[in-house]
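Help needed: design a sequence for this.
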C-alpha cells in the first residue's frame, strides 16, 4: 500500500487538475473489472481526485486478496496494478491431528483454495493449540512451512508437536461433607488419576480437560441441587501445575448450606390457559420430599409441553423459590404469551419425494393452532416412512401470534437394483436379484420384485403396496409369490397371492384385513408319517391384524413401541383348517439424553399359538432358529420332532431378544449390537423346548439397504442341534 500512495504523492501536483480519460485494472483474479469500477468511485470524464483513489486503494486492501497495489497515470489513463496473495493449493498437518483429515478444515478454519493470509495462518495455529489444550495437551509447538506449487499458489504444512498432557494427581474438595469424593468425581470431567490403574482404558487417567474445567464447578453445584442444597456455593477451580513434571493439583472450595424439603408447589399464570390441578397431578416435585433440581426441570418441561399443546408456542416459565427453616416453596411463574397459529408449512430439501407425500404426514396445517405434540408426532411420522435420513421441523417465528413451519428433509436412497448374495449355514450361498423401491417416483408407493436362489431354495416375489390411497387413511397391497424350499425332511412348493386392505385408525394405530390363497405341495417324502403326506393342499385364509407404532424412525428407532397382533383363520374354503394367533413387537429406548452417549436398548419379542381345526400341515406350524427368532441356530431348526427325529413344528412358540446398540464410528450409519436371544417352542406348551443364544451384529444402513452381519453362539444347545455361527441379511429392518 505504501508503494501505491508514494507514487500518487509524487505525481499529485501534476495531475490534480487532469481529467480522467479511462480507468484500467491489471492483475485482477478474484474481482471482476465491473466490481472494481464500482469500488473505485470514479468515472471517465471526471477530474482526477487523489483522495478518491486513496480511498479506493484502501477498499481493495480490505478485501484481503492483495499483497500489493499501485497506481500509475499515463496521459489521463489511470491504471490500477494488483499483485494478489497466493492461493493455498494443499494443506498438510504432520504430527498431532494428521489422522483427523476430515475434521481439519473445521479445526484449522482454512481449507484448500483459500487465499494465503498470515493472519489466517496465525489463527489456525491458535486453533490447533486450543484443540490440543481441550484434549489436555500443553506447551504445544506449531511450525508452518510453505513451498510454491505452480504459479501463485502454495502448499502449507503445519508441523505440530502436541506437547505434554497434564495429569491431576490430587483433587482436593474443601468443605465437602455430604458427598463422597467418588460421587463428586462421577459428575465432573476433570478427575484425579487412579492411584494404580490410571493407565488402563476406562479408568480415570487424570488428564486435564481444560475446556471442561470452567463447567465442573456448575456440575458440582448441580449435584448439590439434586439433593436439596439450594444454598450450596462452589468456587472456581484452582489448578496448580508443576511444569517440570506436568503434574497438577486441583482444588475446589464448597459451602454446602442446609438441605431443603419441598413445602409446597405453586403454579401462577399471567393468563390462565390450563387448570393448575391438571398439572399438579403430573409434577415430579412433591410436598414433603427433598428438593431435586432435575425433577424441577422435568416439571418445567412438562408444563411447557402441556401449555404449548394448547397453542401457546412461546410460553415462558420462570421458577421462583421462597426458603424458610429448611423448607422451600417452589413457584412456577408462567407467561403463556399469545396463542399461536400456523401461517404456512414450507417443504424443503426434497428432490424426489412429492410435497403431498410429506404434507400428509404433517399434522399441522396453515390456520391450525400450534401444538407441541402434533409437531413431535409429525417429525416421527416422517421418519417412520423410511424415505428420509434426516428430518427437521424448524419453528420460524413470524409475529407474537404466528409462525411458519419449515419441514427440512434429507432424502435417502429408497430403491435399488441389486444383484448380490448371502450365506446361510443350511442353504449355503444364496444368490439374489431384486428391484425394489419404497418410494416409487416419490409417490410413497412401495414396489418390489425379487428372485433368490440357493442349493436348497428358489424364491420369487412380486408385490406393490400403497399406504395412503389418494392420500387417504386407506391402504392397499397386492402380493404374489412362488417358492420352492428343501427342508430337512421334505420339499415344499408354495404358490400364492394375497390382497390386503387397511385403514389408519389413529396416528399410531392401524388395522388391516388380508385374504390369502395358496397352493402347497409336499414332495420328496420317503416315509409314511401322519405329519408328512405327499400331495397338494390349498389354503384360503382371512387374516385381520392391528398395529400400534409410535417409534421415531423406520430403520433405527431410538424411542417408542411397535407391536402387531394378527389372527389367521384358514378354512374359508380350501384344505387347510386352523386358527393361528400371533403377536410380535419391540420396545426401543435411547439413552443419549441421560448419559450423553448414543446407546440404544431394544427389547423384542414374539409369541404365537395355533389351534388345529381339522387339518394343520407341518409347514404352517411354528419353527425357531435364524436371524428373525433365535440367533446361533440354523433357520427353522428348533422344533418338536417325531419318533424318527424329524422336525414337525410346534403349536406354541415364543422368542425374546435383548439388544444393546452402539455406534461403531462417529457420524456413521454403522453400529455394533450385542444381543441375547431366548425362545421356546412345543406341541403342548411354550417351554417344551427352550434355547438361548448370544453374540454381536454389525448393522449398516448401506446404499443397498440395511445390512446385518451376525456373529452368534448358542448357549444351551443340545446334541443334534443344528447351530450357526455366522449369517447376514440385507434389505430388512434391524
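Sure. Designed sequence:
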Amino acid at each position: 500500500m505504501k508503494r501505491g500512495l508514494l507514487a500518487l504523492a509524487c505525481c499529485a501536483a501534476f495531475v490534480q487538475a487532469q481529467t480522467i480519460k479511462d480507468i484500467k485494472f491489471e492483475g485482477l483474479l478474484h474481482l471482476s473489472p465491473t466490481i472494481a469500477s464500482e469500488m473505485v468511485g470514479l468515472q471517465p470524464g471526471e477530474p482526477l481526485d487523489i483522495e478518491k483513489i486513496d480511498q479506493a486503494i484502501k477498499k481493495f486492501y480490505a478485501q484481503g486478496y492483495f499483497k500489493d497495489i499501485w497506481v500509475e497515470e499515463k496521459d489521463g489513463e489511470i491504471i490500477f496494478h494488483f499483485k494478489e496473495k497466493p492461493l493455498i493449493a494443499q494443506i498438510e498437518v504432520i504430527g498431532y491431528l494428521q489422522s483427523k483429515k476430515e475434521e481439519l478444515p473445521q479445526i484449522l478454519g482454512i481449507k484448500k483454495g483459500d487465499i494465503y493470509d498470515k493472519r489466517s495462518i496465525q489463527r489456525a495455529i491458535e486453533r490447533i493449540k486450543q484443540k490440543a489444550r481441550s484434549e489436555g495437551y500443553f506447551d504445544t509447538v506449531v511450525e508452518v512451512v510453505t513451498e510454491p506449487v505452480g504459479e501463485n499458489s502454495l502448499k502449507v504444512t503445519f508441523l505440530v508437536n502436541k506437547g505434554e498432557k497434564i495429569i491431576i494427581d490430587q483433587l482436593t474438595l474443601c468443605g465437602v461433607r455430604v458427598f463422597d469424593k467418588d460421587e463428586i468425581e462421577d459428575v465432573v470431567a476433570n478427575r484425579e488419576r487412579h492411584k494404580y490403574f490410571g493407565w488402563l482404558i476406562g479408568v480415570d487417567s487424570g488428564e486435564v480437560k481444560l475446556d471442561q474445567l470452567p463447567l465442573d464447578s456448575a456440575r458440582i453445584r448441580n449435584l448439590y441441587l439434586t439433593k436439596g442444597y439450594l444454598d450450596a456455593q462452589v468456587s472456581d477451580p484452582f489448578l496448580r501445575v508443576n511444569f517440570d513434571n506436568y503434574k497438577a493439583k486441583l482444588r475446589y472450595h464448597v459451602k454446602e448450606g442446609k438441605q431443603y424439603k419441598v413445602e409446597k408447589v405453586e403454579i401462577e399464570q399471567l393468563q390462565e390457559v390450563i387448570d393448575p390441578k391438571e398439572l399438579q397431578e403430573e409434577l415430579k416435585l412433591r410436598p414433603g420430599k427433598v428438593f431435586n433440581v432435575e425433577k424441577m426441570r422435568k416439571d418445567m418441561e412438562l408444563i411447557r409441553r402441556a401449555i404449548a399443546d394448547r397453542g401457546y408456542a412461546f410460553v415462558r416459565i420462570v421458577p421462583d423459590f421462597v426458603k424458610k427453616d429448611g423448607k422451600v416453596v417452589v413457584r412456577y411463574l408462567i407467561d403463556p404469551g399469545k396463542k399461536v397459529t400456523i401461517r404456512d408449512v414450507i417443504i424443503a430439501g426434497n428432490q424426489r419425494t412429492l410435497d403431498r407425500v410429506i404434507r400428509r404426514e404433517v399434522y399441522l396445517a396453515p390456520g391450525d393452532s400450534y401444538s407441541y405434540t402434533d409437531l413431535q408426532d409429525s417429525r416421527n411420522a416422517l421418519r417412520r416412512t423410511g424415505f428420509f435420513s434426516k428430518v427437521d421441523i424448524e419453528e420460524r417465528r413470524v409475529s407474537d401470534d404466528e409462525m411458519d413451519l419449515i419441514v427440512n428433509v434429507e432424502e435417502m436412497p429408497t430403491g435399488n437394483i441389486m444383484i448380490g448374495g448371502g450365506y446361510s449355514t443350511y442353504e449355503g450361498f444364496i444368490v439374489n436379484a431384486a428391484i425394489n423401491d419404497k418410494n416409487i417416483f416419490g409417490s410413497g408407493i412401495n414396489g418390489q420384485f425379487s428372485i433368490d436362489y440357493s442349493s436348497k431354495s428358489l424364491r420369487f416375489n412380486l408385490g406393490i403396496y400403497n399406504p395412503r390411497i389418494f392420500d387417504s387413511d386407506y391402504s392397499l397391497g397386492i402380493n404374489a409369490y412362488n417358492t420352492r424350499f428343501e427342508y430337512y425332511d421334505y420339499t415344499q412348493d408354495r404358490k400364492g397371492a394375497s390382497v390386503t386392505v387397511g385403514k389408519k385408525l389413529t396416528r399410531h394405530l392401524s388395522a388391516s384385513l388380508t385374504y390369502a390363497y395358496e397352493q402347497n405341495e409336499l414332495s420328496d417324502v420317503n416315509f409314511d408319517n401322519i405329519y408328512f403326506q405327499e400331495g397338494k393342499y390349498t389354503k384360503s385364509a382371512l387374516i385381520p391384524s392391528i398395529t400400534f407404532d409410535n417409534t421415531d424412525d423406520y430403520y433405527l428407532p431410538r424411542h417408542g413401541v411397535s407391536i402387531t397382533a394378527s389372527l389367521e383363520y384358514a378354512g374359508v374354503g380350501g384344505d387347510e383348517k386352523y386358527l393361528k394367533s400371533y403377536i410380535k413387537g419391540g420396545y426401543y429406548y435411547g439413552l443419549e439424553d441421560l448419559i450423553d452417549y448414543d446407546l440404544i436398548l431394544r427389547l423384542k419379542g414374539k409369541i404365537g399359538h395355533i389351534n388345529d381345526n381339522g387339518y394343520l400341515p407341518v409347514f404352517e406350524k411354528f419353527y425357531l432358529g435364524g436371524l428373525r427368532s433365535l440367533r446361533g441356530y440354523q433357520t427353522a431348526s428348533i422344533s418338536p420332532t417325531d419318533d424318527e427325529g424329524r422336525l414337525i413344528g410346534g403349536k406354541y412358540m415364543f422368542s425374546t431378544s435383548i439388544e444393546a446398540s452402539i455406534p461403531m464410528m462417529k457420524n456413521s450409519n454403522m453400529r455394533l449390537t450385542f444381543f441375547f436371544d431366548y425362545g421356546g417352542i412345543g406341541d403342548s406348551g411354550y417351554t417344551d423346548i427352550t434355547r438361548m443364544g448370544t453374540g454381536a451384529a454389525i448393522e449398516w444402513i448401506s446404499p443397498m439397504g440395511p445390512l446385518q452381519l451376525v456373529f452368534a453362539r448358542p448357549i444351551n444347545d443340545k446334541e443334534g442341534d443344528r447351530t450357526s455361527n455366522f449369517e447376514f441379511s440385507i434389505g430388512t429392518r434391524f
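The longest strand covers residues 559-574.
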